[in-house]
Every structure is written in structure tokens, then in C-alpha cells.
Amino acid sequence: MGDPVTLIAKWFEGVLQGWGLNEDATLVVMNLIGVIVIIAFVMIIDIFLVWVERKVVARFQDRIGPNRLGPFGLIQPVADIIKLLIKENIYPKGIDRFIYNLAPLFGLFPVLLIWAVIPLSPTTIGSDINVAVLYLVATGAFISLGIIMAGWASNNKYALLGAFREVAQMISYEVPMVISLLIPVIMARSMQLSQIVQSQNIWYIVGAPLAALIFLISSIAELGRAPFDIAEGESELIAGFHIEYTGMKFGMFYAGELLHALAVGGIFSSLFLGGWRGIGAESFPIIGMFWFFIKAYFIYWVIMWVKYTFPRIRIDEMLNFNWKFLTPISLVILMVTAVLDKLMTGYPPLVYFGVMLVANLLIGWIIVVLLRRNVKVEAPKVAEPRPIARPDGAPPVPAGASSSITSQS
User: Fold this and answer.
1) Model-level pTM?
2) Which residues of the chain fall short of a pLDDT of 50?
3) Which residues, in sequence order, are bridge partners of residue 388?
4) What letter does residue 121 receive in the DSSP assignment?
């Protein structure tokens, strides 16, 4: 059964052909209109996300949030956009103006490109390419390029340091994220997102919960959101790579961050939660779009929940967590999944996913046992008192003598 999107597209295609356009020209115009419609659609969603973000954080912090402009404060994001548009653009001294102005575009446009391959419903997808997963990884690299451009072009040491931190973080956490992306690819035997969604008669999160968790954690780090927002550490970097940006240029970075978070929710739902699949989605594609955004917004809420709950961690702890914990675990999960997928070929789906789930639970149990053993070894070292260093260069004072020295002083 045709959905409204398909019906409107066919009607407009008939209008163009009625104007005398040939088939090739009609295809070009239809693709161009499709791009504009998708960009406009996600940007309207982005405006709504500003209100959602402020309302959710208000609830977490026992506040009301926006409540003055419009019902429930719904018009507040519009007022914020107007304020950013009329705000003065400040150009710091000594900047590379061309790169400085180009960087915000690289902060927003790659996020819009991500939505080109995400299937919103059975019949609504920008471009159904057969290497969509690889496309997502490649497109995400442009975001780090925009960040390093902003930090370098700003002629500010805090901005440059924040950019270096952010790029180091993004490149590091891309490794476990890409590895976890391969798990649904193995299960679906395809890198085409529409095919991955279509093959999920049973959600892949059932057979690969650890891969889903690693992908979510890595994606939050990729977003630069708390507890991984060390690149915007206010106590040391003030605001990180975009400290020198004002007005709508800053607004583009902020809009890109919010839209990227929702895009992560859309990718997660497509890879592990069945995407648009749900009750009535096959018969009525518009219902599939409803299911897709319900799942995407749920993951977006989880990302907000993590951001407004956990404290910021140090950059050394963050990188150690990636290279010494997430990356080895993701590699183990990938190898186990690949072997079991080969062995379980031809078995019924319930048996296949049951074996995969048991393997994930076993790996998780081993991880918990090893972590507990490591805590028993490391905890006494942390609790052991250390010698007190003296500023005059004299030998350090033993830890037991600290109280006597304090009393004498």
C-alpha cells in the first residue's frame, strides 16, 4: 500500500513530466528535491531537539525548563535561533578567516549526509547504497576534520588543545565502534542498512547485546558528550575548539551535535533494534517511520541520561578505557561472533540467536570476573599512603610523618 511520501513523489513526478521534462531531467530534479526535503525535515527535528534537550535536563535537575514562549516553551528554540542570527560575528585577531568560516559547515553538513542512507520506513530512504555501513564510517571522519579546522584557524591555544583532544578521542573510539558495527554486518551478511533492517525478524540486540553496548558507549565518546566531553572542559579549556565562535557559527556546531546524537539513535535502532520494523509497518510505511523515530528518540534519551548523570573523566582514563578495555573486548566479540555465525549457518533463528546470546553472557561473565580480580590487586595500591614531596627539593617525607610535620607547622 502506498504511503503519503510515495504518493506525493509520484504526483510531483507526473507534474514535472507534464511540463515537458524528459526522464533524465525529471530524475535529477526529483533527487534534488528529495535532498532538500530530507535536509529541511532533519533541521526541523533539530530545532525540536533543542527544546527536548532543555526540558529533559531540567527534569533531571529538578527544574521546569523553557516555559515562557508558547505552550510548554515550544517557541523558545525559535527565539534562540533569532538571537543567534542577529548576534554580532566576532573575528579574533590573526585567524585564518577562510578556514575559520568553513569549519562550522564541516561540523553540520557531515551529520546531514549521515541521514542520506538511514532507512526511515520501507519506502523512505535517501540513497539505498550497498556499502551504507562503510559510508557511515567515512562520513563521520569529516566531523573530526571540521573540529581540527576550527581549533587551528581560531589562533587560540585553548581552542587548538581542545581540537587535538577531541580528534584524539574520536579517532580512538572509532576503533571499537567500527568493530561493533561489523557484528550486524556479519549477522545480516550485508553492509546495506535497508537489508540489515529487513533481516531483523529478531532484533540483533538479542544476539549481540555486548556489541550494542560497545557501539553506544563509543558513539557517545564520538559525540564528545559527558562523561567524554573532556575537549570542552570548562575548568581548563573554557569551551574547547569552538571557544572563539559566536552567533550562528556557534549555533551550527551546537545543531550538529544535537542532530548527530539523534543520528546515532537512528543508526543504533537500524543496526540493533529493527529500525522501522514494528506492528503495521509492512502494510503502512508511514507507521514504520513512527516506529523508527520512537526507537531513535529512546536511544537519544539514553544518551541524555548518561550525559546528565555521570561526571567528566580525565583524558588519560578515557583513552585507557578505550585501548585497554573496549577495543580488546570488541575484538573478542567479533571473533566469537564470526566463528559462531559460521557454525550456526542453517539452524533456526531461535537457536542461532540463543547461542549468540549465551556466548555474549559468557563473555560478560568472564569480563566481570577479571575486573573483580583486578580491583582486588589494584585497590591496596591506591589505598597505600605515598611519601609527601617537599617543595625545597629535599628528600620526600615518609607518609607516616605527615601528621607530625603538620602539627609542627
Assistant:
1) 0.86
2) 402-409
3) 397
4) B
